[in-house]
Amino acid sequence: MSTKESGDVPVEEFRQQLRQLTDWIVEYRANIEKLPVAPAVTPGEITRALPSVPPNEGEAFDAIFADFKDIIVPGLLNWAHPEFLAYFGCTTTAPGVLGEIASAALNVNAMTWRTSPAATELETVVIDWLRQWLLLPAEWSGVVFDTASIGIMHALCAAREEAVPDARTLGVSGGPALRIYTSDQAHSSVEKAAIAIGVGEENVVRVPTDESFRMRVEKLRELIARDLSGGMRPLAVVATCGTTSTASVDPVNAIADVCHEYKIWLHIDAAYGGGLALLPEEGAITEGWARADSLIVNPHKMLFVPFDFSVLYLRDLERLRRVFTLVPEYLRGDTEEAERNYMDYGVPLGRRFRALKAWMVFRTFGREGIAARIREHMRLARLFGDWVSASRRWELSAPVSMGVVCFRAKRAPDDFNSRLVEEVNHSGRAYLTQTKLRGRTAIRLGLGNILTTENHVRAGWELICQTANKLAEKYAI
Ligand SMILES: Cc1ncc(COP(=O)(O)O)c(C=O)c1O
Questions:
Q1: Ligand 1 proximity of 271 Cβ (cutoff 6 Å)
Q2: What is the 3-state secondary structure (H, E, C) of the chain?
Q3: In this structure, are residues 441 and 408 in contact, taking their beta carbons and an 8 Å threshold?
Q4: 12 CA to middle of ligand 1, Å?
């Protein structure tokens, strides 16, 4: 198509292109195991393979598609690969891909009810379905964001409104320092939120954890008392259900006791672990949630919704609206108090139609289908943990929790464990991550990819053991 033409790509051409793309997607998913997990590229290589100046004339789809296949895809880490055993094994799924394609075609903006009634109402419905699965009380309601990092920032803004009611209008300068308490295992998004909302990184107090990496509640109590006597103002406690390194779960009920006693906002970071609530036998994960003020869950971590889809729940969602509603003049005619306008519940104005893919995933698998898949990943994690414990070379670095196993080579230096992760990743046959636990390097396996089976986990274990054998010679251990 030449630049002299106006309008979009002609319909028949688009139909052919879309067919090529959807065929490619199906083949990619079906044959993904033949691809290396990690790309063999060096920094800057992709940039050098691409023109440094933008196209002046439009280009043919075939040329663009060829570069996509030849330059872009080989330069990607294949998160959808069943041997991708890193982070939280977050996964895409067939219904999730369909939802993403459909929402790209629709390109609606769910900022107000009127700018897309069905997108707004589907968001509300999906949020409420998920609320029921999470066993949160009926009065709780939520809002969809891209990530948990953005969600916690909003939760803490709502907490700030409670602690300092005129924070919205006057800001927070001049008053006592606001303090946020979270465990030494909590995600760095707590600090980022503190930076963003003007509380300050140094006002995030890291509470020590016990031998199972759970917040020590007596220490929390001590730290709050210390800060109060120093004239500081506790703003919020962030408890984590499924920490980033070990998937440990803080004792939420005991933390809620402290929060209620001191009247401090309780936020639950269930970004990863929230998904466990869908398994009836794991219902204990939800203990104490109903006593909190806000909770984050990332269905893009455990619940098979493709990235990105994060939900922030509040006991009283109106609080968030009071903090953020601000109707620009040009939207005034487009809004009614009685309508749910999600732009009122946070910083973003324009909002992607994220609920569509979640709705498709939730309907395709149902609660039982989702729970069965999670259950299987947990079984595989325990099985892997058994192999580790049964071996003389390895030891667990933390209790196996959810889909996460942290382990290390016994009697080997940290460097050995780090090198092992690098070598495995470099092989392209599996992909792992590492973390630091009590100052020592641990290898970390995160299961959750919908394509990962016992054979994949077994092959990953064999690769790890073979790599360790080779490295042991070099390290003379
Ligand atoms: C426990 C926990 N909370 C929050 C986050 C931040 O998630 P997001 O990438 O959605 O901001 C992560 C990321 O892995 C996490 O592990």
A1: yes
A2: CCCCCCCCCCHHHHHHHHHHHHHHHHHHHHCHHHCCCCCCCCCCHHHHHCCCCCCCCCCCHHHHHHHHHHHHHHHCCCCCCCCECCCCCCCCCHHHHHHHHHHHHHCCCCCCCCCCHHHHHHHHHHHHHHHHHCCCCCCCEEEEECCHHHHHHHHHHHHHHHHCCCHHHHCCCCCCCEEEEEECCCCCHHHHHHHHCCCCHHHEEEECECCCCCECHHHHHHHHHHHHHCCCEEEEEEEEECCCCCCCECCHHHHHHHHHHHCCEEEEEECCHHHHHHCHHHHHHHCCHHHCCEEEECHHHHCCCCCCCEEEEECCHHHHHHHHCCCCHHHHHHCCCCCCCHHHHCCCCCCCCCHHHHHHHHHHHHHHHHHHHHHHHHHHHHHHHHHHHHCCCEEECCCCECCEEEEEECCCCHHHHHHHHHHHHHHCCCECEEEEECCEEEEEEECCCCCCCHHHHHHHHHHHHHHHHHHHHHHCC
A3: yes
A4: 42
Asked if 421 and 106 touch (Cβ cutoff 8 Å), the reply is no
Angle at 276 between CA 275 and CA 277, to 5 degrees: 90
Q: Is the pTM of this model over 0.85?
A: yes
User: CB atoms < 10 A from the CB of 459, how many?
Assistant: 16
Distance 323 CA to ligand 1 centre (A): 24
Q: Is 244 in the pocket of ligand 1 (CB under 6 A)?
A: yes
User: Mean pLDDT across the chain, nearest whole number?
Assistant: 95
Using 50, 70 and 90 to split pLDDT, how confident is the model at 127?
Answer: very high
Q: Which atom of ligand 1 approaches the CA of 272 most closely?
A: 1
- Please give the distance, rounded to the nearest whole angstrom, from the Cα atom of residue 187 to the centre of ligand 1: 6
Least confident of 259-273, 288-302, 329-343, 386-400: 329-343
Residue nearest to atom 16 of ligand 1 (CA): 244
Cα 462 to ligand 1 centroid, rounded to whole Å: 30
Q: Which domains does the chain have, with CATH numbers?
A: 109-352 (3.40.640.10)
